[in-house]
Amino acid sequence: MPSRRSFLGQTVASAATLTVAPALPAMAPASAAVERLPIALMGCGGMGVHHLKNLMNRPDVDIRYVCDVDANRLASAARIVEAGQGHAPTPVKDVRRILDDKTIVAVWMATPDHWHTPGAVLAANAGKHVYVEKPCSHNVREGRLLVEAATRNKVQIQVGTQARSTKTCQEAMARLHGGAIGDILVAKAWNSQKRRNLGHVPPSQPPAYLDYDLWLGPAPEAPFYANRVPARWRYFFDYGAGDMGNDGVHNIDVAIWGLQVDRLPDRVTALGGKLHFDDDQQWPDTQYVVCEYNAAHAGGLARQLIYEQRIWSPYVQEGYENGNAFYGTKGCLIMGHTIGWKLYGERNKLLEEMTGPVDIRSHHTNFLEAIRSGAALNAPALAGHVAAGVCHLANISTRLGQTLRFDSTTETLPQNEPASALLKRAYRPGHWATPKGV
Known about the structure:
The chain is α/β, with parallel strands linked by helices and 438 residues long. It has eleven helices and 15 strands. Strands 14-13-12-11-7-10-9-8-15 form a nine-stranded mixed sheet, covered by helices on one side. The longest helix has 20 residues. The radius of gyration is 21 Å and the shape is globular.
C-alpha cells in the first residue's frame, strides 16, 4: 500500500499538550500468564501481513492457521509466522477448513472488501469471534447483516478502524464530547493523497498460483484482469467501495464518532467522478459529499457530515493529508487520526494539542479483552456498519446524480427503485458464502 500503511504503528508515542486533561483508562497489557487463544488469519496481503507481524509476538495468541487463495502469499505468511512465534501455522486456501476447526476462537479477516461480510458472517455462524478489516461491508444491506450476525451468534466483531483504540484520538473525543468546542454541528473528513494510474488492460488468464474462483467468492463471475488482482480491486464496483471505502472510511468513522451518531444519515447528496485518471478504475477519483442528520436522530441537534476526496493530489489540507475538522459553536478541533490534533477556541486561539500515531496493537488488545471478559469493543459491528454505510450511500448518490432521502430507521430508500437496487448487490447464484438475507 502507499504511505498511509506506514502509519500503523505498534505503540502510541508520548504526547505533548498545552493543557493537561484527565487521561482515559489504559488497557491492561497482555500477560505471559494469559491463556494463548488459538486464532486464524484470512487474507495474507499487505494488511494481513501487518496484522500477523503485530500478533505473532503476543504471548496471548497462537496463530494456528493462515489462509489465502494466492499460494505465494500463503507460503510467505506461513514462513513469517513460523519465524515469529517459533512454530508454523497450517496454511489453507479455503476458509471452511478453519471454520470447521472448533478449537479456533477468533478469525482476523483481511481479505478484499467483497469477502468481508460474507467471510465474517460465516465465521460468526461457526461461533468464532471476528476482527474484520474496513470497510466491513460491500453494501448497506451487508452491513446490517453483519450487525445481526454478531448479536445472533453472541460473538464479538471488531472492525479495523484503529483510531477508536488510539490514545490521541480517544483524548480528542473526550474534549469534543465534554463540550470543549460547544455544540458540534458540522464534522468534515477528507482524503487527499496521490494514487497511481491503473491503465487499461484486457482480460487474461489468472496466474497459476492464484485460485481465482475462490478469490471471486460470492461476487458475480467475471474475467481476470491484472490491474484488479491483487490490491487494486477496491477501485471496481464488484469488489470495493473506491478510495472512500479504503482510506476515507477511517476519517468518516472519526467524524461519526465525534458527532455521536449511531445510525446512517437521513439525507445524502454527492457530486464526483473521474476528473483526473484515464484508466479502468470505476469509482470516482474526486468526490464531495454532504450528509445530514435530523435533530431527532442526532442528539436533538441537526448535524452535517462533509467528505472531500482527491486521490490525485499530494496537497496536505489543514496540516493533515487525511484528516477531520469538527466545527462547534465555541471553537473547532482539527485532527489527523494518524498524527494528532489541535483544539482552537474563539478568535482562533490554540488551546491544546496532542500528537501520536495510530495504535493497531491496542485495537487488537481491545478485541482480545472483549473475547475474554466481555469488555466493550471500541469499534463494534454497528460502528463499522454506520461508517461503511455512509460510503455506500455517498457512492450511490454519486453514481445516480441524486440526493438520497434515506429512512435511517428501516435503512431503506422509499419510492426510489434505482437507488434501492444499489443498497444490495448481485451474488453468484447458489454460492456457499452468500449471506442469508441479502
